[in-house]
Write a structure and sequence with these properties.
This protein is α+β, with helices and mostly antiparallel strands. The protein has a single domain, classed as Glutaredoxin. The chain is about 55% helix and about 15% strand. It has five helices and four strands; from the N terminus they run H-E-H-E-H-E-E-H-H. Strands 2-1-3-4 form a four-stranded mixed beta sheet. Strand 3 and strand 4 form a beta hairpin. The longest helix has 13 residues. The N and C termini lie far apart (about 30 Å). The relative contact order is 0.19.
């Protein structure tokens, strides 16, 4: 990944408490996994931003290298990689996600 792509990714991650790299956007997810993540965060009622990886092939590949995680969507919370759709579903079902998000938003 080139330095400019890495800088753009870090700027998005560090500029938002909750950042999702996904296919589509929060108003129109373009895959089921991305939709799952958006729906979970909407249920929690927390503010979040999205980046449509379909609009930028460099970011789409770069985020996979950046996180060392092969799939999209990818969720970042307070600058830290949280996981993808499956991990968010697990955290939500266990009740951990709400607590983790509340702590992050309060900091």
């Amino acid at each position: 990944m080139n330095p400019e792509t890495k800088e753009r990714i870090e700027s998005l991650i560090n500029g938002n408490k909750i950042m999702i790299f996904m296919k589509g956007n929060k108003l129109m997810p373009q895959c089921g996994f991305s939709n799952n993540v958006v729906q979970i965060l909407n249920v929690l009622g927390v503010p979040f931003e999205t980046f449509d990886v379909l609009s930028d092939p460099e970011i789409r590949q770069g985020i996979k290298e950046y996180s060392n995680w092969p799939t999209i969507p990818q969720v970042y919370l307070n600058g830290e990689f949280l996981g993808g759709s499956d991990i968010l579903i697990e955290l939500y079902n266990s009740g951990q996600l709400q607590e983790t998000v509340e702590v992050a938003l309060a900091s």
